[in-house]
Amino acid sequence: MALAVACRPAPPLVAIGLVAPFEGRDRPIGYDVLFGARLAVRQWNAQHPNGPLALLVALDDGGDPALAAERARQLRGHPGLIAVIGHFRPETTRAAAPVYQGAGLLWVAPLIPADRAPEGALPTAPDQRTMVRLLLEGLPRPPRGRLWWVWDGEEAWFGPEIIAHLREQGWEVHEAFWQDAAPRGSEPVWFDGRAVHAGEAWRRWRQEGWSGPLLGGPGLLHPDLRAFWDGSGAVRVVAETRRVTDPAWVEAYRAIALGAEPGPYAPLGYDLAWVLLQARQAPSFRWVGRTGTWEGVSGRFWKTPLGFVGEP
């Protein structure tokens, strides 16, 4: 006797590319983002058993610009690829840009100020003028209103126009290389560079009697800064993401991250993976995520609030 077996067609499968540093100094960024995005994909698939089911394709660029471009090329032809999220550092993001532009891929460039994102990328962070306003809001002015703009030449999140934005706020801006800067008293220091250099400079300046706040953008979320910062004195960072303390979400993250605690990048990875899937499913949507309320129309999306100010 022949038996007829009814076979249900497999649900459609879509892929999201994630390129980030999983090795080297910046590996904490990559894994924080990865586990956040994996959690979103797992929850999405559980809620949409009939599809489209999501697959996360994660590649390591090691924080290296040349490798970032190579990883972007490897992703171009992946079956079912709907979008790419990457690369979480300014230099690797810019290096990969020509590949994504040539392929016509939907590409989200997180953390980069909106007016500094490469052409063709979908930025989700505030622009530099907004970052200046958010970070300096309510900041007391020292005598003479001097603010130090300090860079290290290795990692540049901001462009030269930000100096004009700072001066628009009424600050006297003193520019210096990180090893040459010598802030005094309570003068604020805005540091644009690697978090490890910000930490080394912060410790030296404190020993020399400086008592001002250390300011910065998303680069200072890196855990390297916390290795130097002892919690004393003000450290203020402006970024589009922050740590999440919701117990249920933290527990779900721990379960997928082998017990690791979520850092400041995890909720952004979670939100971006979910929003890309949501945008594919519905041209218009509104969704409350871990980093704000996301809205989308015709393939574009944004969130409110644009950014947060807090400790790293």
Search tags:
single chain, 312 residues, alpha/beta, six-stranded mixed beta sheet, five-stranded parallel beta sheet, elongated, disordered N terminus
How big is the Rg?
21 Å
- Helical content stands at 25-40%
Order of helices and strands: EHEHEHEEHEHEEHEEHHEEEE
Name the structural class. alpha/beta
Instruction: Kindly report the average pLDDT value.
Output: 93
| Largest sheet composition | 6 strands, mixed
Shape: elongated
Strand content: 15-25%
Count the DSSP helices: 8
Number of strands: 14
Distance between the termini: 69 Å
- Largest sheet: spatial strand order: 7-6-8-9-10-14
Q: Could you list the spans in which at least 5 consecutive residues all have pLDDT below 50?
A: 1-6
Task: Compile the SSE list and pairings.
Elements: E1 13-20, H1 27-47, E2 53-60, H2 65-75, E3 81-86, H3 90-103, E4 107-109, E5 122-123, H4 128-136, E6 146-151, H5 161-168, E7 172-177, E8 189-192, H6 195-207, E9 214-216, E10 235-239, H7 247-256, H8 266-281, E11 284-288, E12 293-297, E13 300-304, E14 308-310
Helix pairs in contact: 1-8, 2-3
Task: Write structural notes for this entry.
With 312 residues, the protein is of the alpha/beta class. Helix content is 33%, strand content 22%. The protein contains eight helices and 14 strands. It has helices spanning 27-47, 65-75, 90-103, 128-136, 161-168, 195-207, 247-256, 266-281, and strands at 13-20, 53-60, 81-86, 107-109, 122-123, 146-151, 172-177, 189-192, 214-216, 235-239, 284-288, 293-297, 300-304, 308-310. The strands form three sheets. Strands 7-6-8-9-10-14 form a six-stranded mixed beta sheet, covered by helices on one side. Strands 2-1-3-4-5 form a five-stranded parallel beta sheet, sandwiched between helices. A three-stranded antiparallel beta sheet has the order 11-12-13, with helices on one face. Strand 1, helix 1 and strand 2 form a beta-alpha-beta unit. It is elongated, with a radius of gyration of 21 Å. The termini are far apart.
